[in-house]
From TrEMBL:
SUPFAM superfamilies: Class I glutamine amidotransferase-like
Transmembrane segments: none
Name this polypeptide is given: glutaminase
Keyword Lyase listed: yes
Origin superkingdom: Eukaryota
E.C. number(s) listed in UniProt: 3.5.1.2
């Protein structure tokens, strides 16, 4: 049985916080038996109240500096890698959740880690090279139409550095004349997307992820893989 109350935090140091909370609110309608609390997280105390967390887009270097200043970096690492709570990073959030990042400023940048991948920041160029592409996200379920992927100074996963097959590639994009890039990955409790579902008004990825959160916590959660299903509580494949 999933718990009846679940608190989902959105790291609110900078970036697209309210957009995520708006879509989480809409997505929560798919799980009427669960009471969700959505919480903006700026302190270790607030993080400790959370069962799951979204790390939004923004600027990963800034986010890391602010997180360090607020004493949040170590608690975040513990949340993701020791307590194995469900976490989703979008864009800069994906960068934060990678074990390695290239194209970082001199001296590198601090990361939370959790995904055994190396990301390449700003793969597609600057803000003006932002683009939208239809993505086939099979994990949303059979017969689901394409998902509008919004890419803004987006990173990609340039290499999976996990030798044990724990990193699952859940989405790719191919720009004309370029190689296919990995833009959605999952490793156990950690999910990352290069794109911004919170900017589309399409609730499907949020609903799917909340379904994973419900399942993970219902199964005793910690350390369990996320579930691939239809996002409406129907059990799918467990990785
Ligand atoms: N939209 C975004 O989150 C941009 C991410 C940013 N380019 C970074 O590296 O961290």
């Amino acid at each position: 049985m999933p718990p009846s109350t679940i608190t989902v935090g959105v790291l609110a140091l900078q970036g697209g916080v309210v957009e995520h909370i708006a879509l989480l609110n809409r997505a929560s309608a798919s799980y009427p038996s669960v009471t969700f609390h959505f919480l903006e997280v700026r302190t270790p105390e607030q993080l400790s109240l959370c069962d799951a967390l979204i790390i939004p887009g923004g600027e990963s270097t800034t986010m890391a500096i602010v997180a360090r200043r607020l004493g949040l970096l170590e608690p975040l690492r513990e949340f993701v890698k020791i307590n194995n709570k469900p976490v989703w990073g979008t864009c800069a959030g994906l960068v934060m959740l990678a074990e390695e990042a290239s194209a970082t400023k001199q001296g590198g940048q601090e990361l939370i880690g959790g995904l055994d991948v190396r990301v390449l920041r700003n793969k597609f160029g600057t803000q003006v090279q932002s683009f939208v592409a239809d993505l086939n996200l099979d994990f949303l379920g059979e017969g689901e139409g394409p998902f509008r992927g919004v890419f803004i100074r987006a990173p990609v996963v340039e290499e999976v550095i996990d030798g044990n097959g724990r990193v699952k590639v859940l989405g790719t994009v191919k720009k004309p004349g370029e190689e296919e890039d990995i833009v959605a990955v999952k490793q156990g409790n950690v999910f990352g997307t290069s794109f911004h579902p919170e900017l589309t008004g399409d609730v499907r990825v949020h609903a799917w992820w909340l379904g994973n959160v419900v399942e993970a916590l219902g199964q005793g959660g910690e350390g369990k893989g996320l579930v691939v299903g239809k996002g409406k509580g129907d059990a799918g494949k467990v990785y």
